[in-house]
Amino acid sequence: MYVGRDRNHGHAVVCLLPPGAYRAAEAVRRGPVPGVPPVLDLSTGTEPAWVALMHTPAVSLSDVRRQPGPESGILPLEQSVRLAAEVADTLAALHARGISYGAVAPDGVWLTTARPLLMALHACRMPSASPREPGRGPEQRQGPEQRQGPGPGPGQGPRPDAGPGRPEPHSRVSTVPAAFMAPEVAAGRPSSTAADVYSLAVLLLHTATGRLPFGDGPPPVLAYRALHNRPELPDLPGELGEVVAAALAASPTDRPTAAELCRTLAPGGQDAERTPDPLPGRVVAALAVRTQAIADLEIADADAGGQADGDGDGRAPADADAHEPPHPATQAATPPTPGPVPAPATPDAPAPPTRRRVLSGLLTGVGGAALGVSGTLAWPALMRKDGRTGPSAAGGGSGTSPRVPGMPPAALWRLDDPTARTRLLPVGSADHCLMTRGDDLYGHDLRTGKEVWQLPAGGSAPPVQVPGDRFLTATREGLSLCSMRDGRTQWLQRNEQLARVLAADGATAWLLTGDGSPTGGYLLAAFDLDHRKELWRTPLPSGFGNTQLATTVGPETVVVEVQVPQQVFRDVTAVRTLAIAGFERSSGRMLWNRSYPDVHGGPASVVDPAGGGRLFLLSGGRAHAYDLKTGTRLWESQALVAGTNAPPFFSGGTLYLADDGTGPIVAVDPDTGRTLWEQTLTENLAWNELGSMTASASGRTLYLATLHQITATGIPSGKRMWQTGLAGVEARVPFQLAAVPGTLLVARPSAVVALPAE
Q1: Summary mean pLDDT of the chain
Q2: How far, in Å, CA of 89 to CA of 262, rounded?
Q3: E strands of 379-486, at which residues?
Q4: Does 85 map to a domain?
Q5: What is the C-alpha to C-alpha distance for residues 239 and 234, in angstroms, rounded to an integer?
Q6: Does position 372 have pLDDT exceeding 70, yes or no?
Q7: What is the pLDDT of residue 450?
Q8: Is the pLDDT of residue 705 over 60?
Q9: Residue 438 class from Cβ within 10 Å (0-12 exposed, 13-18 middle, 19+ buried)?
């Protein structure tokens, strides 16, 4: 989405449309929808296709900073309910036309001085739904998108015959963060009107309280919680708690429709003449900043004069007219080729877009890629069928051009560290990511890579993420809860014995603290973040001191494991005894304490805490599974694993292994030990060249880091998607990887590159 401008200097919101959104955009164009900006123009015959909407100064809910405090939301409760009712009213109107919005999340709902707006038309779809029940069960019937044969995947562009009457097959890429995703969507089914209702219930809870009903995490984990756990709902007045719980039902058919939800949230109906409630000051301030940002771009454009992109007399070129293709959005969607010299302005190779042709990606943060980052990207140039090269061949940051199959996506941004002291942290949100450089902790804008804030790191232990774009860290003073947006401390709980934060799940954190005794023993403590009080503490067994501990939190059990210090990682000949203990989550009572001898040196184990818990470890050339309750061995894997292996990785109900040489990446069934698939590496790896594995936040892609490159493998097919390295950076240690919503961060100590995750 972009802010664009036509010949008469009128502004519009320009949405670039995938083929699956063509029919929905046509349906919106046929008549006004309350809460959706009027359609000014629509073009599905261009590449990329686009729709222009009337522009109104607006900020998304994710742009509005939350007030300090663990229980405060984005808006007061009464305004949050009113907002949800107005969004439900708009959804009901869309659903009545057979349109699912598919973007009910903080990034997809915009606040204005009047009613909220839904304008992410690129996310809208028209699933096959009954006119009588537009909000119930469309995902249980096959729509035209699903009946068609195989077609291009997400981000691969429209087929030549695609159009309003020929939509593309369903894309499994969801446009909402995992925490707002209905369980059936997380399982890979298309978005639907019932999924919109589920997402709206999460949005209401998040906006009013800052909390999420099932915490945060990858889609498979959240889908499991939504299907098997009760949502964690705070005390809500009246029928509000009941209607939110009903909208969060695991089965789509059990949820109310958007119209029913609207009637419950606003019993008196939507009054068009009602004077809107005064907006909080920070929302007004954000609207003012957004409006001023557009005005500043206009001023800068006027100062630059008309020679850069006009015809010498200050007039805009013909293609700047929003009603005459090619629209300027097509220029926004095609970043310039990386390199010191921009491509010449020819019909086949458009010139780099200027501010006159593209004002900004102010709505969704893609302007950094659209306006160009020439000279900063060292990702391999890609060759298109027409012989041209550049990020546009890979889809770039805008995600509008087809990516060459087998080639990596173009980088969104790159950050260089001349001191070579950068370390990625597995902490991030849809908007921000964290990393350390030397002794300092930095917050970066995930969309641009720009540094937003800086703090003292506070120790060697990394911070731990908690819901609500926040993180916990152990400081010299005690436990500190900080905002990921600006790094500010929301509260500080003084604790002189605090050693580190081990893990967090929902509103509970688990801490390692000293017991204050002369012998220097350590305790495991559970801490309630909402009420800022300790729930319980229990002594750790001997040997579980202030070493490198891995902590896994399950529904009933907290598992603590002693890991190998980093300096002896990948000792070819080393074996060790793995010490691991389990504690009851509710009381802290130690359930068991076991040791497993002859385990491979280095990180060689991983825990699946669901369903009572299983431990997977590498020993004797094979992977083994043990029941954590009884200690009995469940199976021994078929696949052989070398002693110099990558750390095993468990994600989405599958165990992944990798070892040195040209040995494969192996996917293992965690219930039987049976090999599901293997993917052989294309490089011959020595024992010190293997890095770690991670999965995208959506759970659809597995990434393996080595000394020279990153391999992306599709889940669950096992098909290699692409492999690539990072040019211009010396390779001394394997790549660092961090998967945050929508983005894969790849780093050396001297450089960080952000890639689209899917």
Answers
A1: 74
A2: 6
A3: 413-416, 422-428, 432-437, 440-445, 451-456, 464-466, 470-474, 478-483
A4: yes
A5: 13
A6: no
A7: 92
A8: yes
A9: exposed
How many folded domains does the chain comprise?
Answer: 1
**Domain containing residue 223:** 57-281
Residue type, 258: A
582 burial via Cβ count (<10 Å: 0-12, 13-18, 19+) = buried
Q: What is the largest CA-CA distance in the chain?
A: 82
Residue 375 within a domain: no
pLDDT computed for residue 390 by the predictor: 29
pLDDT per residue as tens digits for the range 642-680 = 666 778 899 888 999 887 766 678 999 999 999 999 888
Amino acid at 227: L
Q: Residue 500 contacts by C-beta under 8 Å, 6 or more apart in sequence?
A: 459, 461, 474, 511, 512, 546
**What secondary structure, in 3-state letters, does 7-24 show?**
CCCCEEEEEEECHHHHHH
Q: Structure tokens of 734? A: 């394997």
Partnered with residue 50 across adjacent β-strands are: 16, 43
Report the distance separating Cα 335 and Cα 48, nearest Å. Answer: 13
- Res 348 pLDDT > 90: no
Nearest to 251 by CA among 326, 208, 192, 314: 192
* Distance from chain centroid for Cα 52: 27
* Matching residue, tokens 């160009």: 372
Q: Measure the CA–CA gap between 719 and 713, rounded to whole angstroms.
A: 6
- Looking at the chain, the number of H-run helices and the number of E-run strands are 11, 38
Cα–Cα distance, 296 to 221 (Å, whole number) = 44
Q: What is the rounded CA–CA span in Å between residue 702 and residue 43? A: 36
Q: Report the SS3 class of residue 454.
A: strand
Q: How confident is the model at residue 131 (pLDDT cuts 50, 70, 90)?
A: very low
Say which CATH number the domain at 186 has.
1.10.510.10
C-alpha 725/C-alpha 747 separation (Å) is 11
* 3-class secondary structure, 718: coil
Tell me if residue 735 falls in helix, strand or coil.
coil
Residue 455 in contact with residue 487, Cβ under 8 Å?
yes
Return the sign of the alpha-carbon dihedral for residues 739, 745, 746, 749.
Answer: negative
Distances in Å between the Cα of 579 and the Cα atoms of 134, 515, 576, 592, 617 are 55, 21, 9, 11, 12
User: Does residue 196 fall inside a structural domain?
Assistant: yes
Q: Tell me if 234 is assigned to some domain.
A: yes
Residue where the block lists tokens 């490198």: 548
Residues 6+ apart with CB under 8 A from 736: 423, 424, 691, 705, 745, 746, 747, 748
- Whether the bond between 317 and the residue before it is cis, its omega within 30 degrees of 0, is no
How far apart are alpha carbons 325 and 313 in whole angstroms? 22
Label the pairing between strands 39-43 and 432-437.
unpaired
Asked whether the beta carbons of 266 and 258 are under 8 A apart, the reply is no
CA distance 295 to 444: 25
Amino acid at 411: A
What length is written for the chain?
758
